[in-house]
Amino acid sequence: MIDETAKKRYAELVSFSSPKTKEARSIFRAFWVGGTICLVGQFIRYSLQIFLGLYGDELAGATSIVLIFLGALLTGLGVYDRIGKFAGGGSIVPITGFANSVVSPAMEFKSEGYVYGMAAKMFVVAGPIIVFGVTGGAIVGIIYYIIGLFV
Fold first, then answer.
1. DSSP code at position 22
2. Mean pLDDT of all residues in the chain?
3. Helices (H), the chain
């Protein structure tokens, strides 16, 4: 049984050797980096609307495609990892963070081969999200199709 003095000394040792967190700085970085990513997305959206004349679903889809491409490209170049280290949770803005979560494992396991390494590990993190999205989309499509038969 450990006496109270040993517990107290251990707690002091852990407190002394643990790195101090700078929560205010981390929150600020996450906020402004995440906001900047969203600002870039909004700029892309307005640019596609003005220069290509896209509206509605086409505009949303094209914006998503550009953001996914940029997230994957920056991950492949190693830039997104540095952004993640700097910004923490601010870099996990849904669409670019999703692209990062697909590309990172693919790059990490590329040495194991294209099929058993890269292709098999690519969707380890993002796989459940993709499966749910595809399955949910298929179910909704079937429901709309059935409703369309009777209307």
1. -
2. 86
3. 4-17, 23-52, 56-76, 79-87, 94-108, 120-121, 127-150
